[in-house]
Amino acid sequence: MATTADVAEVGALLAGCDRVTVLTGAGISTGSGIPDFRGPRGVWTTNPGAAALYDIDVYRCDVDVRRQVWQVRRTSPALRAEPNAAHRAVTELDRAGRLCAVVTQNIDGLHQKAGMDPARVIEVHGTIHWVVCLSCGLRTPTPQVLERLDEESDPRCVRCGGIQKSDTVSFGQRLDPDVLEAAVAAVEECEALVAVGTSLTVHPVAALCDVALRAGARLLIVNAEPTPYDDAAHALLREPIEEVLPRLTRVILAGD
Ligand SMILES: [Zn+2]
Q1: What's this model's pTM, rounded to 2 decimal places?
Q2: Which is the catalytic residue, given 87, 111, 125, 129?
Q3: 79-84: long-range contacts (C-beta < 8 A, 24 or more apart)?
Q4: Host domain of residue 112
Q5: Quick one: what percent of the chain has pLDDT higher than 70?
């Protein structure tokens, strides 16, 4: 069973690892002003009705819900947020050649904005920066759709007139199998999986921890709250993510 470790101990555990995969959740982006949805003070925890806006069947059937969602998107902090020290620390590991990939549950694009090679960011829940047509699949940058909101309350696809939606995974929607396969591959090839700011309660993403452990990788968890994988982890860090990740990166890279 893992006990809470300190950064130096965890850094020593990772010092020889050339292949690290980082799994990130909402906790890495709260420091950038993006609210957490599932945490104790999260949007869905404190206002369960808000979750109905993100159900795919409701969205398809109800034009009023779509109008409401577009208005929410228009002011979404995720579109304008800036990466924080934790995102930058992950980028630093990547530039040092130590990362297989970042698998993220976040839709905010902040790893890419922090300079990560987009080819090594696997967005399992999609991205808020693109809009997709639910009929023909046309993808459009989100700002191009949002600028139509002054004239149209539910902007339709310019190619086929279909209903459009943020290219994010809603409740009731399956994850893209190709993206999930890439995430599994990134975890299978790593020597250590570092799970950062994720409650590890949302499947199938949480099960990536099982994949890592079966493949013989070390599992490190950096999260303020307990997770179902704490007992299986090789080490836990509870400190604030924005402080701990830069320190962890320094300790890992100092071992080179
Ligand atoms: Zn279309």
Answers
A1: 0.91
A2: 125
A3: 79/128, 79/129, 79/142, 79/143, 81/29, 81/32, 81/33, 81/34, 81/108, 81/110, 82/32, 82/110, 82/113, 83/32, 83/110, 83/111, 83/113, 83/114, 84/28, 84/29, 84/31, 84/32, 84/110, 84/242
A4: 1-34+83-125+174-256
A5: 92
